[in-house]
Design a protein that fits this description.
Blueprint: H1 7-11, E1 18-22, E2 27-33, E3 40-44, H2 57-64, E4 69-75, H3 84-90, E5 94-105, H4 116-125, E6 130-134, H5 141-155, H6 165-171, E7 177-184, E8 187-197, E9 200-208, H7 210-214, H8 217-232, E10 236-240, H9 252-258, E11 263-273, H10 276-285
Parallel strand pairs: 3-4, 9-10
Antiparallel strand pairs: 1-2, 2-3, 4-11, 5-10, 5-11, 6-7, 7-8, 8-9
Helix pairs in contact: 4-8
Length: 303
Amino acid sequence: MTGYLHAEYAKSLEEFGYPYLLSKSQGWILDREIAGSAYRDAINCYPLFSCKNWSEIGEDLESLKENELVTLSVVTDPFGNYDIKHLHKYFNYKVIPFKEHFVVDTSRPLDSFVANHHRRYAHKALQNIQVEKCQEPMKFIHDWIKLYDVLVQRHNIQGISAFSEQSFIRQLQVPGILMFRAVHQEITVGITLWYIHSDVGYYHLGAYSDVGYQLRASFALFWSAIEYFSSYQLPWLSLGAGAGIQSDETDGLTRFKQGWATGTKTAYFCGHIFDEQKYKELVDIKDIPGTDYFPAYRKGEFG
């Protein structure tokens, strides 16, 4: 168990909910309070629900009834070993395609699939930047937090993806973490974090200084990381999806990730209601009009 499957990763998010292990499937969720009520619900750990035994999800959902949760919401790992028909069988309220996640088949040479634009920027950035794989990520925790603060300010990030310093301290110690650092004139100007579990490397987070943005450190870092994973003989990389709840091919993050990808895989949003009466009560109390948002009583909240 490494990366998103590891207990320490789930515990790194405990300020957003109580980490709870689904004993059959071996996946983690966050049990959280519902504001303004005595009830609780659960979500997957950021950013995806990953588990070891997808065929056991049904039994886990049955056992969760005893926990008095109202709902469970998860976004599935696009590399999960599940069948869409089984997801519909397990989750009683909603199973819909959520986002297309960009993926990389590392058996292909970089020059055969990386967009010309990305390739030019990467080669140019590497003339001014040195990229190293950090053997001890914790040595650069302060650099990382400083860079991530820049990202938070630039994009007004709130909620679970804002992360605290304590959360990052734990994340950088999770088995399966890989850190790549971009250096210009002996100063860290960018860092990307990846997690490995099974035969997939998952892009987790990236952050850059103002100088890093100017030098296009992201292009140098992604080129070097994909090159490393290809030599490492890790078959697949998952780069995640674009920004926001709805996919938008025009947003910058989508275009950036698409330029590195060999294809896409679908992540599904799955919703399950454990207690219909409590669910209706919460929706009525919050006076929520008809909506596709799930759970409806959390519409308008962040996270």
